[in-house]
Specification:
alpha+beta; globular; Jelly Rolls; 9 strands; four-stranded antiparallel beta sheet; five-stranded antiparallel beta sheet
C-alpha cells in the first residue's frame, strides 16, 4: 500500500512589494529641493497629511513619482492575482523627519494599499548612549494575525512577527493598507525625507468577491 501524497498550501499570505526606481538619483536631487521648500512654507507639513495631496502638486519630479507609484500599484495588483482593471486614486504626503522624529505603530484605514518612497535616508547615525539594539531610520512591519505567535517554536517559518528594513534612497515599498507598521527614530542630524501614499479604490461592484 503506497503512502498518500500530502498537499500543502500557504494560506493568508501578505504580499509586500519593494523596488528601486530607475532614474531616482536625478529625481531625488530635485525632490529634496522641492520638499524642503514646501517644509519651509508650511508648519507641520508631515503631520497635517490630510490637508493636501502632494500628487496634485504639478511639479515635474512629483509627477514622475506619481506615475511610478501608479505603475507599481498596477504591478502589485497583477502579482496579487487581480486580473481586471482597477479604478483607484492616489493620495500622498511628504515626511520630513529630523533628529528624534519617528512614527508610532499604525495602519491606514479606508485605503486598499499603502506605501512609501524614500528620497533621502541618513547614512550616519549620531547615537547617544543607550541600548545597542536600536535601528534608526528602519521601518518595521508586523504579522497581521494577532494570535500567530501563540505556539511559536524555533524554526517555524510561519512565525516571524516582524519584518524590518532600512530602505535606501530610491526605494519604493508597497503593502496592504491593513498592515501595521512603525518607523524607527531618526538618530542623525541629517534629515530623512520620504513620500507616503495611499491607493484608494473607487467603488465598483466587480470588486465584490465571488
Amino acid at each position: 500500500m503506497s503512502n498518500p501524497t500530502a498537499e500543502f498550501k500557504t494560506l493568508w499570505p501578505t504580499l509586500f512589494m519593494q523596488i528601486s526606481l530607475p532614474g531616482h538619483e536625478q529625481a531625488n536631487a530635485v525632490l529634496i529641493e522641492h520638499l524642503d521648500r514646501l517644509d519651509s512654507e508650511k508648519d507641520q507639513l508631515t503631520t497635517d497629511y490630510l490637508s493636501d495631496n502632494l500628487f496634485n502638486d504639478g511639479h515635474p519630479a512629483v509627477d514622475w513619482l506619481k506615475q511610478s507609484v501608479q505603475r507599481a500599484v498596477v504591478d502589485y495588483a497583477k502579482a496579487d492575482g487581480v486580473n481586471y482593471d482597477l479604478d483607484f486614486g492616489l493620495q500622498a504626503w511628504p515626511n520630513i523627519n529630523r533628529m528624534g522624529d519617528y512614527h508610532n505603530l499604525h495602519n491606514h484605514p479606508h485605503a486598499w494599499l499603502s506605501g512609501t518612497y524614500y528620497v533621502s535616508v541618513p547614512e550616519h547615525e549620531t547615537l547617544p548612549l543607550g541600548r545597542d539594539d536600536r535601528t534608526p531610520n528602519c521601518i518595521s512591519f508586523f504579522d497581521p494575525r494577532p494570535q500567530a505567535n501563540m505556539t511559536a517554536i524555533r524554526g517555524d517559518s510561519q512565525v516571524d512577527p516582524e519584518y524590518r528594513i532600512k530602505p535606501e534612497p530610491g526605494t519604493l515599498l508597497l503593502w496592504p493598507a491593513f498592515l501595521h507598521h512603525l518607523v524607527h527614530p531618526n538618530l542623525s542630524h541629517e534629515t530623512r525625507i520620504s513620500v507616503s501614499f495611499n491607493a484608494v479604490l473607487r467603488w465598483n461592484d466587480r470588486y465584490l468577491p465571488d
